[in-house]
Each structure stands twice: as structure tokens, then as C-alpha cells.
Write a structure and sequence with these properties.
The structure is a single chain. The protein is globular and about 40 Å long. Strands 2, 4, 5, 6, 9, 10 and 11 form a seven-stranded mixed beta sheet that branches. The chain has about 120 residues and is mostly beta strands. The protein has no helices and eleven strands.
């Protein structure tokens, strides 16, 4: 079982930056691919970014390319999402998720474990 706890959300203005963190409880975190998803008001959960267990393969949603950066620190069992140039449309609950090794995954149902989410609100 992998438990995930997100942190770092908050209320910011358009153009600001935030860094989300996701701490995993299990020591074998470094064997899991990790992803960030978000769910805005009245919307379905959507893919944001994903990174494989080595950190060598990364994927981003088109809507965040060039603004968001995913990274991981395996000794710290933590994955990060650096979000720059935030826009009001980035407002959502952001979820961290873990998937068993394989290709980088972009679909929610490919992930095995989920955090509780952290709210990000971007005002205009």
C-alpha cells in the first residue's frame, strides 16, 4: 500500500508560482511512476504531468507545457510539481497519484494510489 499526501496548494494571483509536493509513505516509492492530475469545478479529473520511476521519462498536458515542471526525489519519497505563470483556468484540486512501473501513464484509471488532493486557486 502506498499512501500519498499532497501539500503546497493555496490562493495566488495570476502570474504567480506555486510548488506542490507529494510525500509517499512507502520506501519503495522509487519503483513507482508518479503523476499529477487536477479537477476543476464541474469538470472531470484531467492529466497534468507524469514522471517515470527513473525520472528520465516525463509527459505534460499541452495546457501546462512550458509552465509546469514535474520532478522527483526518490531518497525523500517525494514528487514535486513546480507551477509557474499560473492562470485562473489552473484553479482546481490537484491530486498526486502512483502507478506501478511501465510506460509513463496519462489516464487516471492507470494509477493505483491517490492522495486526497490540495486546492489551488488562481485569482485574476
Amino acid at each position: 500500500q502506498v499512501q500519498l499526501v499532497e501539500s503546497g496548494g493555496g490562493l495566488v494571483q495570476a502570474g504567480d508560482s506555486l510548488r506542490l509536493s507529494c510525500a509517499a509513505s512507502r520506501r519503495t516509492f522509487d519503483n513507482y511512476n508518479m503523476g499529477w492530475f487536477r479537477q476543476g469545478p464541474g469538470k472531470e479529473r484531467e492529466f497534468v504531468a507524469a514522471i517515470d520511476w527513473t525520472g528520465g521519462s516525463i509527459s505534460y498536458a499541452d495546457s501546462v507545457k512550458g509552465r509546469f515542471t514535474i520532478s522527483r526525489d526518490n531518497p525523500k519519497n517525494t514528487v514535486y510539481l513546480q507551477m509557474n505563470s499560473l492562470k485562473p483556468e489552473d484553479t482546481a484540486v490537484y491530486y498526486c497519484a502512483a502507478a506501478r512501473p511501465g510506460f509513463v501513464k496519462v489516464r487516471p484509471h492507470d494509477y493505483n494510489y491517490w492522495g486526497q488532493g490540495t486546492q489551488v486557486t488562481v485569482s485574476s
